[in-house]
Design brief:
Elements lengths: L2 E7 L5 H15 L6 E7 L11 H9 L14 H4 L6 E4 L2 H10 L3 H4 L2 E3 L27 H25 L4
Parallel strand pairs: 1-2, 1-3, 3-4
Helix pairs in contact: 1-6, 2-6
């Protein structure tokens, strides 16, 4: 049985593709690659079919991550179609609100988490709280992408530690 994780941001060209690459690498390093699929999507359709932002790709490559990417948009159907994500990780409180609003029922809403809620330093911060936001680096300089990568890596480490429990395994 495959467990599916989808990282979600606004346009699916900066934060969520970076999270996809980092989570996928952590999943591979943990030996769970045959059991876990990782992808990403955006809440808006502006960049469907596009590659990730060049600054995001450069930041990932500099840190040793690979990413082949094509922008996608999440819809309500993602919650009900076969092969739906088991865990949707939103990058900020705005996207958390959007994705939970797309969820057709309480069970589906329960599959949505803010990604940084897995950061051990932020575990006690409630869902939807802006302190859990991964800021959008798109409007800023390259340093913003480096800061975002550090946030993503910290949350990904916590996610991997929790993954056996999330997958229903001891």
């Amino acid at each position: 049985m495959t467990y599916r994780i989808t990282a979600v941001c606004l346009g699916n060209i900066c934060r969520s593709p970076m999270a996809e690459a980092v989570i996928r690498a952590r999943v591979e390093d943990s030996g769970l690659a045959s059991q876990v699929l990782v992808d990403s999507a955006g809440t808006d359709g502006w960049h469907i079919g596009e590659d990730a932002d060049p600054r995001a790709l450069q930041t990932l490559r500099s840190a040793g991550y690979d990413l082949a990417h094509s922008g996608r948009q999440i819809t309500t159907e993602w919650f009900i179609e076969p092969g739906h994500p088991d865990l949707l990780l939103t990058m900020d409180s705005g996207n958390y609100a959007t994705v939970t609003a797309l969820a057709p029922d309480p069970v589906a809403r329960g599959r949505v988490r803010m990604f940084r809620s897995f950061d051990p330093a932020l575990r006690d911060v409630p869902a939807g709280d802006p302190r859990l936001d991964v800021p959008d680096p798109w409007f800023g300089a390259h340093d913003g992408f480096i800061e975002v990568l550090a946030m993503i890596e910290a949350a990904a480490d916590g996610l991997i530690a929790d993954l056996p429990t999330l997958m229903g395994r001891p």
